[in-house]
């Protein structure tokens, strides 16, 4: 394990300092966010946005920014897709490595550098929406502390073939990181960004509070994929804010295999006529892991299409919470929206809580929502055992097949194979009894 140095005071005790090299507006945003963090109450029992949540998980006392990991082997360990068009490696929010073969005109920089060289463009899109799914206090803490991440701007008419990869490594016991991904696509542009969230070992209890701003311009296609594979001592809050303009398509996918507790909040606003949003997730919690998923499909313009498909395979005493809402504004006629959460129980002790919902304020719409929970049937196990497959392996194959429907909707063979590798790694740990 690389050495972790310069461990400062707890993140909850004092306002963070802002480098003088960064724009004044950014420093002011951080100061205002810190004040908002102090003034915003901590979520409590009775708050609808935190229904069924484990409030003990929000004890962040003693966490502080992680120290330097310069000189570590993490760059060599940051390998996933075979030929990404760009690759960035961060460790405890500090940039370790950057490489790029992107088309001319594309801006792809660490956020710290983009704030200096493209400050007006960053300011226009950085955290421009209020958090509404429950984590307003923690997104304020993120804004007050964020210092790095990735900024991507693809100008009109430019298509990026391949994927931009970003690795976020977390090291140090009680260390915290604040990864931020800001993506903007111009008219008829195309880009795919893959974020990986990893721990440097299996023992340090870390914390990550991550925010994504995804802005799909008219007629563009924006794919965002998050692979959350922290160790099972780490806690994570991830807030995804997506805006989709006229005739644009945004695909957001989250894979959860790690963390002891993960809170995912995903909001997609369809702001232009003909906008499309696909919200996808696969989660495999085991032992005592808990995944808390909150979603909001906001149709603000007519003719929009959104489709949410979340699948959870629960082992041991794991828990999941899903709360989703399709909201259709007045005048957002011809909306076509779907929301599905499916839970597959791999044990009798697992627990899944699902709360899908609709709020429709327009005519001529087609909306549906639902949730299912089931166990693997003995007939399925018998069928596979009759073909020489042991029961544990049979259950793993069924859970894998259950997840593939979501993964196939990424519609890129190399990306799908990468996601399945992470999924198979989790199944292998479960089969071997590893942590």
Tell me what you see in this structure.
- The chain has 435 residues and is α/β, with parallel strands linked by helices.
- The chain has one domain.
- It has helices at residues 24-39, 74-77, 111-117, 119-125, 136-145, 378-385, 391-407, 413-432; strands at 64-65, 86-91, 94-100, 107-110, 150-154, 164-170, 175-177, 180-185, 190-199, 207-216, 221-229, 235-244, 249-256, 261-270, 276-283, 290-299, 305-314, 319-328, 336-345, 351-360, 366-375.
- The strands form 2 sheets. Strands 1, 4, 5, 7, 8, 10, 12, 14, 16, 18 and 20 form an 11-stranded mixed β-sheet that branches. Strands 3-2-6-9-11-13-15-17-19-21 form a 10-stranded mixed β-sheet, with helices on one face.
- Helix 1 (24-39) runs antiparallel to helix 5 (136-145) and helix 7 runs antiparallel to helix 8.
- It is globular.
Name a few traits of the molecule.
11-stranded mixed beta sheet; 435 residues; 10-stranded mixed beta sheet; 21 strands; alpha/beta; 20% helix
Low-confidence stretches: 1-9
Strand count: 21
Overall morphology:
globular
Q: Report strand %.
A: 35-45%
Helix % is 10-25%
Element layout with pairings:
Layout: H1 24-39, E1 64-65, H2 74-77, E2 86-91, E3 94-100, E4 107-110, H3 111-117, H4 119-125, H5 136-145, E5 150-154, E6 164-170, E7 175-177, E8 180-185, E9 190-199, E10 207-216, E11 221-229, E12 235-244, E13 249-256, E14 261-270, E15 276-283, E16 290-299, E17 305-314, E18 319-328, E19 336-345, E20 351-360, E21 366-375, H6 378-385, H7 391-407, H8 413-432
Parallel strand pairs: 1-7, 2-6, 5-8, 6-9, 7-10, 8-10, 9-11, 10-12, 11-13, 12-14, 13-15, 14-16, 15-17, 16-18, 17-19, 18-20, 19-21
Antiparallel strand pairs: 2-3, 4-5
Helix pairs in contact: 1-5, 3-4, 6-7, 7-8
């Amino acid at each position: 394990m690389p050495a972790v140095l310069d461990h400062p005071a707890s993140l909850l005790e004092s306002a963070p300092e802002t480098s003088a090299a960064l724009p004044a507006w950014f420093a002011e945003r951080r100061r205002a966010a810190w004040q908002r963090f102090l003034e915003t109450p901590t979520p409590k029992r009775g708050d609808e946005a935190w229904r069924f949540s484990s409030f003990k998980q929000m004890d962040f006392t003693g966490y502080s920014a992680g120290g330097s990991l310069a000189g570590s082997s993490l760059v060599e360990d940051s390998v996933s897709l075979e030929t990404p068009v760009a690759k960035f490696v961060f460790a405890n929010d500090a940039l370790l490595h950057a490489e790029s073969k992107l088309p001319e005109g594309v801006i792809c920089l660490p956020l710290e550098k983009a704030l200096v060289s493209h400050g007006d463009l960053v300011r226009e899109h950085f955290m421009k929406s209020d958090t509404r799914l429950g984590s307003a206090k923690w997104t304020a803490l993120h804004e007050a502390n964020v210092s790095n991440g990735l900024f991507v701007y693809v100008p009109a008419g430019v298509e990026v073939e391949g994927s931009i990869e970003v690795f976020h490594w977390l090291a140090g016991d009680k260390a915290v990181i604040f990864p931020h991904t800001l993506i903007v696509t111009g008219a008829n542009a195309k880009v795919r960004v893959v974020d990986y969230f990893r721990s440097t070992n299996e023992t340090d209890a870390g914390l990550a509070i991550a925010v994504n701003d995804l802005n799909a311009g008219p007629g563009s296609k924006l794919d965002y994929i998050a692979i959350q594979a922290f160790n099972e001592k780490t806690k994570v809050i991830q807030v995804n804010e997506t805006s989709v303009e006229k005739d644009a398509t945004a695909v957001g996918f989250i894979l959860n295999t790690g963390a002891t507790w993960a809170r995912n909040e995903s909001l997609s606003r369809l702001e232009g006529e003909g906008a499309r949003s696909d919200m996808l997730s696969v989660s495999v919690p085991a032992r005592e892991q808990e995944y808390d998923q909150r979603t909001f499909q906001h149709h603000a313009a007519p003719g929009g299409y959104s489709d949410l498909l979340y699948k959870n395979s629960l082992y041991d005493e794991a828990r999941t919470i899903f709360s989703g809402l399709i909201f259709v504004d007045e005048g957002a006629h011809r909306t076509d929206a779907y929301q599905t959460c499916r839970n597959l129980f791999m044990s009798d002790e697992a627990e899944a809580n699902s709360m899908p919902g609709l709020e429709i304020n327009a005519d001529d719409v087609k909306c549906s929502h639902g949730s299912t929970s089931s166990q693997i049937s003995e007939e399925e196990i018998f069928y596979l055992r009759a073909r020489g497959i042991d029961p544990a392996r049979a259950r793993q194959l069924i859970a894998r097949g259950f997840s593939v429907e979501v993964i196939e909707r990424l519609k890129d063979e190399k990306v799908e194979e990468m996601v399945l590798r992470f999924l198979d790694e989790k199944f292998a740990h479960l089969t071997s009894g590893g942590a």
